Amino acid sequence: MIRRLVHDGVREELVRTRLGEDRSALLSYLLMTMKNLPEERMIAIFADANSYVIAEEVIAEGGESHILITPRRVLGRAMKLDARRITLAHNHPSGCAEPSSLDVEHTLVLCRQARELGMMIEDHLIIGQSNVVSMKDRGLL
User: Fold this and answer.
1) Domains delineated in the chain
2) What is the pLDDT of residues 18-40, one digit of tens each?
3) Confidence of residue 71 (pLDDT cuts 50, 70, 90)
4) Calpha distance 38→61 (Å, rounded)
5) Residues 6 or more apart from 51 whose CB is under 8 A from it?
6) How confident is the model at residue 17 (pLDDT cuts 50, 70, 90)?
7) What are the Cα distances from residue 77, in Å, to 19, 26, 72, 95, 114?
8) Is the sign of the CA dihedral 45, 46, 49, 50 positive or negative?
9) Roughly how many angstroms between the first and final C-alpha of the chain, as a whole number?
10) What angle do CA 51, 35, 4 make, to 5 degrees?
11) Is the confidence at residue 2, as pLDDT, over 50?
């Protein structure tokens, strides 16, 4: 019960701020909610043109080593929400937060398609057992 209250409080704080404004809170939230999942899960945090968070949603779930996500699912949802900025995050159940070559390849395709629609993928975060790796910080986006 207490864990759920903490989760809800941290999520509420995330949704009421500008995307990327409190990065440590975002990373803590992602670690708290995704590091121990037995399967891969991808979430998208959608924000408006001014970077205010509109929604945070699970957009794909998969097995222990992969998820299947289509640009249509992510960008279609963004269009329905009238979102302009998106941060993606998914976990690696192995505990290793290093992005795979497929993670990078698929994210770059998604970034290109988002730009064509007037949107921006701000970052793609990979959640491991004890850390979060930012593709943006690594220069992969």
Assistant:
1) 2-134 (3.40.140.10)
2) 776 778 888 988 999 999 999 99
3) confident
4) 11
5) 18, 19, 20, 21, 85
6) low
7) 17, 21, 8, 29, 12
8) negative
9) 38
10) 75
11) no
State the average pLDDT over residues 62-87. 87
Please state the pTM of the whole predicted model. 0.86
Please say if the pLDDT value at position 72 is more than 50. Answer: yes
Nearest to 132 by CA among 27, 4, 10: 27
